[in-house]
From TrEMBL:
<dbReference type="InterPro" id="IPR011559">
    <property type="entry name" value="Initiation_fac_2B_a/b/d"/>
</dbReference>
<feature type="binding site">
    <location>
        <begin position="250"/>
        <end position="251"/>
    </location>
    <ligand>
        <name>substrate</name>
    </ligand>
</feature>
<feature type="site" description="Transition state stabilizer">
    <location>
        <position position="160"/>
    </location>
</feature>
<keyword id="KW-0486">Methionine biosynthesis</keyword>
<feature type="binding site">
    <location>
        <position position="199"/>
    </location>
    <ligand>
        <name>substrate</name>
    </ligand>
</feature>
<feature type="binding site">
    <location>
        <position position="92"/>
    </location>
    <ligand>
        <name>substrate</name>
    </ligand>
</feature>
<dbReference type="InterPro" id="IPR000649">
    <property type="entry name" value="IF-2B-related"/>
</dbReference>
<comment type="pathway">
    <text>Amino-acid biosynthesis; L-methionine biosynthesis via salvage pathway; L-methionine from S-methyl-5-thio-alpha-D-ribose 1-phosphate: step 1/6.</text>
</comment>
<comment type="function">
    <text>Catalyzes the interconversion of methylthioribose-1-phosphate (MTR-1-P) into methylthioribulose-1-phosphate (MTRu-1-P).</text>
</comment>
<dbReference type="InterPro" id="IPR005251">
    <property type="entry name" value="IF-M1Pi"/>
</dbReference>
<dbReference type="Pfam" id="PF01008">
    <property type="entry name" value="IF-2B"/>
</dbReference>
<dbReference type="InterPro" id="IPR037171">
    <property type="entry name" value="NagB/RpiA_transferase-like"/>
</dbReference>
<keyword id="KW-0028">Amino-acid biosynthesis</keyword>
<keyword id="KW-0413">Isomerase</keyword>
<comment type="similarity">
    <text>Belongs to the EIF-2B alpha/beta/delta subunits family. MtnA subfamily.</text>
</comment>
<feature type="binding site">
    <location>
        <begin position="49"/>
        <end position="51"/>
    </location>
    <ligand>
        <name>substrate</name>
    </ligand>
</feature>
<protein>
    <recommendedName>
        <fullName>Methylthioribose-1-phosphate isomerase</fullName>
        <ecNumber>5.3.1.23</ecNumber>
    </recommendedName>
</protein>
Length: 347
């Protein structure tokens, strides 16, 4: 049984088309992006999100940057490419895939000193497409590794969105859910709504239901009660950055789930592609945590739901300590503690 996946982005007619996730689930609308500035705002304003997808989008953004450079001089070409990479790097600071993709595109561009400007543009677009295709294979492999930790008739919980709308096709955290469906397994999923941006309600619940997965939506503060009732067999989340000791940054609320899972003796799995692993950063204390605007908390689709001048603290991510994580599952295999030793073996 095959799965039909939503496409969060598509390159056609020399243009990047991005599914506007701000309008989901009501409207499926693809918006064209023809400039680096448009790509920047698509990432920053969360028209799309998810660490792997942000990386893919940034790669296409660099290909678009090359299309707007008119100098045949390689030094001038590289100077402008570096400038655009720095600009795109400011869009979402927590997602390490963003910087991984930008570095890869810059490294590719640096090898093209002997070719024409037209050839540079062609090769860089091909590189972005390769990054996109690689992500599809990576996600499938993550799912195949993770499903070996699961059994039929299990009930899973996930937080935020680490599915086809955050990556390519299978997603990371959702990959074993889709594979289980293809195998005919009877697996159920609880999706947390994920306040304040509601990625779980608007995106995860939407895409899993659309893909034929048995999914139930709950509010974030119901998770502990479900665990206490014995209704959850395992928790699977994605991540925006995993550092050398295994500390993991993911959507705000993830750490709370991990604490609860530890208390109720429930396995807590993190599903990530290896580009999300940042061995240059030692601990989670070093991870930059993006803070977003107050309106995400104080308003609801334009309607004020809190006192107008109330102070707001809105971190978009939290860091789950490594000792709360059962295993980190990548396309290269399953990594168990001690993470500071075993993550290095992937590379």
């Amino acid at each position: 049984m095959t799965t039909e996946f939503l496409k969060p982005l598509e390159w056609k007619d020399n243009t990047l088309y991005i599914l506007n996730q701000l309008k989901l689930p009501e409207v499926e609308e693809y918006n064209p992006k023809r400039t680096v500035e448009e790509v920047f705002h698509a990432i920053r304003d969360m028209e799309l999100r998810g660490a792997p997808l942000i990386g893919i989008t940034a790669a296409y953004g660099m290909a678009i940057a090359a299309q707007h450079i008119n100098s045949e001089d390689h030094s001038e070409f590289m100077e402008e490419m570096q400038k655009q990479a720095s600009y795109l790097g400011e869009s979402r600071p927590t997602a390490v895939n963003l910087f991984w993709a930008l570095k890869r595109m810059i490294a590719k561009a640096m090898t093209l000193g002997e070719v024409s400007l037209e050839e540079k543009r062609k090769v860089l677009l091909e590189e972005a497409m390769i990054i996109h295709k690689e992500d599809i294979a990576i996600n499938r492999a993550i799912g195949e590794n993770l499903i070996s930790l699961l059994k039929e008739d299990m009930t899973l919980m996930t937080h935020c969105n680490a599915g086809s709308l955050a990556t390519s096709e299978y997603g990371t955290a959702t990959a074993p859910m889709y594979i289980a469906k293809e195998l005919g397994w009877d697996i159920k999923v609880y999706a947390n709504e994920t306040r304040p941006y509601l990625q779980g309600a608007r995106l995860t619940a939407y895409e899993l239901a659309r893909g034929g997965v048995d999914v139930t939506l709950i509010t974030d503060n119901m998770a502990g009660f479900l665990m206490s009732q014995g209704k959850i067999d395992a928790i699977i989340t994605g991540a925006d950055r995993v550092v050398a000791n295994g500390d993991t940054a993911n959507k705000i609320g993830t750490m709370s789930l991990a604490v609860l899972a530890k208390y109720f003796n429930i396995p807590f799995y993190v599903a990530v592609p290896t580009p999300t692993i940042d061995l240059d950063m030692e601990t989670g204390k070093e991870i930059p945590i993006e803070e977003r605007g107050h309106e995400e908390v104080t308003s609801w689709f334009g309607k004020q739901i809190a006192p107008k001048d109330i102070k707001v603290y809105n971190p978009a991510f939290d860091v789950t300590p490594n000792d709360l994580i059962t295993a980190i599952v990548t396309e290269k295999g399953i990594v168990y503690p001690p993470f500071n030793e075993n993550l290095k073996k992937l590379f």
